[in-house]
Fold this protein.
Amino acid sequence: MDNAKGRAAPATIRADSKLEKVRRVLVAEGALALIPRTVRYLFHRLWPGAEGRAPEQAAASRRLPQEKDFALEVPFAETALSPTSAGVGSVAAVIHAYHAETCGEIVDLLRNVPFAIDCYISTDTESKKRQIEAAFAPLGKGTVEVRLFPNRGRDITPKLVGMADVYGRYEFVLHLHSKQTPHGKTRLAGWRSYLFRTLLGSPQTVRSIFEVLLTTDVGLVFPQHFFPVRVSLDWGHNFARTQQLLARAGVAIGGDELLEFPSGSMFWCRSAALRKLLDLNLSFDDFEPESGQVDGTFAHAVERAYLYLVEAAGFRWAKVAIRARYPTTRTVLPVDTLADIETALAKAHHRLIGTLPGEMP
């Protein structure tokens, strides 16, 4: 998600203690993600307000071990692409551009989409709107519409609430945003580019993703996690709110399920795969005012709910990766023929709803 205001204000717990000074440094430098999960869990038990999080106790997380966390390699070999992936039905890009200066980069990558795509872009000021319109004018892929919304709920609220009317008119949707992560400093500096290029790095990459969406029951395709953030992907202080959100959609989770989500909130999807989320009719008031939070918000809960709701709508999900951009190459599955797509999905997709501890792959 877009961190629109940067670093959160440090918590005030035991502000005059030496340990509190250590905590402040770790949070400010983004160093917590480098600490093993068990140590971080104890850290948050001692300081529930760390990183500007809500006071809810951090929840334990069941995630796939790295050596079993597979993704399909993109782009596929040409032999794994059919003519249908070169031209599809109605497609829209829903983009939140709080950081309007990144729009040139976005437009350059959207040129790799080998078919028409209408763009719906959100931002929060008139001056940014003019900047965005100028940047998108040369794209020539379809219509471009820029809408203004309050700076609330990062990229999640504008895309799901402000653009809620878009999804019913398009079969496929791309979610992007102008992601910046100042609290991660240099360690996370490449996250946005990694996500962008995994989804839009070449026309063949886009065709490969659409081959999956057009020929299987996959409803959402997202990038394999940016490697530097892998160690910090957990429920954190978001479980209770995610559980409550899913309950509103008729989906029950107890915390023993596998946790998986599109970290960074960028993906290609079928609009139908988001229907259970859209039918909740969320509003801007459901989301907290912006104060530089880095966890524990309703937007973080929505991010963790995506794949459970995709499964509840009757779809699978899939992760993709570019081999040269991912360090654990043995978990990147090549797709050389059309038959390899389903073979790779059988290894890379693990159902989330209803999984039990004994069913860990």
